[in-house]
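User: For documentation purposes, I need each entry recorded in a consistent format: the amino acid sequence on its own, followed directly by the corresponding structure tokens. There are two entries in this batch. Please keep commentary to a minimum and don't merge the entries.

Assistant: Recorded as requested. Entry 1:
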Amino acid sequence: MKVARALGGVAALAAMGWGVHACAPSGFANEYNIDSVRILASSATEPYAKPGDAVTVQVLAYDGRPMKPAPMQVSWFPLQCDNPTDDAYYACFEQFGALSSADAGGAGRPTADAGASAGAGALSLVAGQDLTPFLTPGPNMTVIIPPSIIASHPPVAGSSPYGLVILFNFACAGHLEFTPPSSSNANPQQVPIGCFDSNGNALGPDDFVFGFTRIYVSDTVTDTNPVITEVDSPDAPDGGLKVSQGTTIAPLNVASCSSKCPKIPIGPVIQTPAAGREVWVDFFSTAGTFNSDARLLYSATTGSEGPPSTTDTSFYAPPDAGAQLLWMVVHDDHNGASWVTVPVEVQQADAGSN
């Protein structure tokens, strides 16, 4: 099982390793090549919401498996986890149904409605139960931010008052079942939900991704997601294509090559963010390689990193013909995210061409 999450701030930047070449060592797959069930990103209509707001969260998921015995299903657990202990996503797991019913005795386990708000409320689940009837299907889920969420969040030293809502999403090439840990399992991060095929066999990381999205709540902070205005590429018409959130643009037509493929500079152009904002882009594709799968666009201290010629990555199309996909996911350090999908049409090479 893979875990996907919406990341912001220093932790995300440290994890990406700016400037590191994206090629993987021999025998290891590149993280940016999508050849399995994947959740690439999530985005809330309000990265920082207000109490009482209705917020819709969308996930970007793709099934890149070469063989698909069962289709990928994207869904949400109908539990809105509010202000979990220490803001830890796994502290919400104790709300995933009546965990005590699956344990021997279940002493010390809180009930399912502890900290839960709209949605599931107090579900009463048992180990092995098919969750399909409870799930919210599809890539989007809308929640109502509780009016008291800021007041009920414990104060954090050095931080203005805030609240936190966490939502859980899944991409599963089968069906989901409730799989609570036994009372002897002391690992608080064990996900109590598994993905199973029609014969009851547990599916692995190529077929199952568990994800979560954080929505921060503030009375004083108002934020919007990064706005992608254009895809910059010399192979695009006029060197760029106008886009908007979630858009799939017209395909880039790339000449096929038999061995060493030419590099294609490509990257997003975004609206200037607020001062002091750090903004970066992650690149993914179904085939081909990048010289860098993450690029910094704006620094919190120095602003713009430069024009597209500076911040673009280089994409090397696969040395064969066919239709492929490329994604650019733009994040900022205030929990914002936007993306664009770029089809890549690799044209069949003429005889004798390189």
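Entry 2:
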Amino acid sequence: MKIRELRLNEATPMELLLMADPSRELVESYLGNGYCYVAETGSQIVGIYVLLPTTSDTIELVNIAVVESQQGKGIGQLLVKHAIENAKTNGYKAVEVGTGNSSTNQLALYQKCGFIVTGIDKDYFVRNYPEAIFENGIQCRDMIRLTHDLTQA
């Protein structure tokens, strides 16, 4: 598997990004200011992530998704680790990520990769998405904010 930056002339795999964030409007807004990377096996894109600079020291992992048929194979963890290394290489001191309170697998993944919970944005998904979102039988209401400190050894 190879992870590379999406080329300027290459079509964005929007359906994959919409798996992680159902708002096309939000996805398009951060794509314009972020850096998009894809994981591919052969010529097939199997995963994607987007990093968005928020300050001179911090970059946010705003979207990460893996093709459904490829989930559970460690691709998500490889993408998160690639994003962390990418941020370090580019001089950032922290990587932030936000995920839903109902996103139990994602919460576990981020913590396994060294992120710690740093905050909760109450009712974020209720305020920002017109349709209710449910995962794992739980309504997605709150955004759990996590940070990976890149200055720690």
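Summary note for entry 2:
DSSP finds five helices and nine strands in the chain.
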